[in-house]
Design a protein that fits this description.
GO terms for molecular function: DNA-binding transcription factor activity; transcription cis-regulatory region binding. Pfam families: TetR_C_43, TetR_N. This is TetR family transcriptional regulator. Keywords: DNA-binding, Transcription, Transcription regulation. There is one protein chain. This protein has helices spanning about 15-50, 55-65, 70-75, 80-105, 105-125, 130, 140-165, 175-185, 195-205. It has two domains: about 20-75, Orthogonal Bundle (Arc Repressor Mutant, subunit A), CATH 1.10.10; about 80-210, Tetracycline Repressor, domain 2 (Orthogonal Bundle), CATH 1.10.357.10. Mean pLDDT is about 80; it is low at about 1-10. It is mainly α. The chain is built from nine helices and no strands. Helix 1 (about 15-50) crosses helix 2, helix 4 (about 80-105) runs parallel beside helix 7 and helix 5 packs antiparallel against helix 7 (about 140-165).
């Protein structure tokens, strides 16, 4: 009489080594693709800083160490690439907030460091402001995305610094970000203007002195 439950060929719950190996290969390929895309976005951001958003795609490809076709495979149009770079930089800035709170000696130190990163983002997005005012529908949601991702991070940093007694309470993240943004206007066109110094004075003014 045959035994119930099936043979080594496997019952319904069996998973063979080949399936597991294939799964690992797929996950590895996905991780590699993600890293390659991250490298492309980092290269594009660096080229945009140096040469503006109209820089030749071949310059981005050369910096990333890939062929031009690889870039077009990920980003069929320049607008697709610009949007991806913008979102990538916003995400990096957003993710930095909690990381800085965990690693900096005080919440105020985390706030100062995060504002420095925010200023870097604002000052170095050469040509992006003009592009965002174009008729391309893909750019319409970027400002809302920027606000939705970064304002809560700034709010959290401000709340932590206020709770620790290092700064005055009551300042909203959007207010501070707008103030910083206004101080960064013109920084890219006037080499005599030091936006980082002016923003530093603003953030110094948040400190409690009593």
């Amino acid at each position: 009489m045959p035994r119930s439950g099936g043979s080594d060929g496997g019952g319904s719950g069996a998973v063979n080594d080949g399936d597991e190996g294939a799964g690992r290969v797929v996950r590895s390929e996905r991780a590699d693709a993600r890293r390659n895309k991250e490298a492309l976005l980092g290269a594009a951001a660096a080229v945009f800083v140096a040469s503006g958003v109209e820089a030749p795609v071949r310059d981005i490809a050369a910096r990333a160490g890939v062929g031009v076709g690889t870039i077009y495979r990920h980003f069929p149009t320049r607008a697709d690439l610009i949007i991806a770079v913008y979102r990538h930089q916003v995400e990096a800035c957003a993710e930095a907030g909690p990381a800085l709170l965990a690693s900096c000696p005080t919440p105020y130190a985390a706030l100062r460091r995060w504002i420095d990163l925010f200023v870097d983002f604002l000052v170095t997005k050469h040509g992006l402001a003009a592009v965002l005012q174009s008729d391309n529908a893909g750019f319409d949601t970027l400002h809302a995305y920027f606000i939705d991702r970064l304002v809560p991070v700034c709010d959290r940093l401000l709340a932590a610094a206020a709770d620790s007694g290092e700064i005055h309470s009551g300042l909203a993240g959007l207010e501070l970000m707008r103030g910083v943004g206004n101080l960064c206007i013109g920084a890219g066109s006037d080499p005599r203007y030091d936006a980082r110094r002016m923003v530093g004075l603003l953030v110094d003014g948040l400190r409690r002195t009593d």
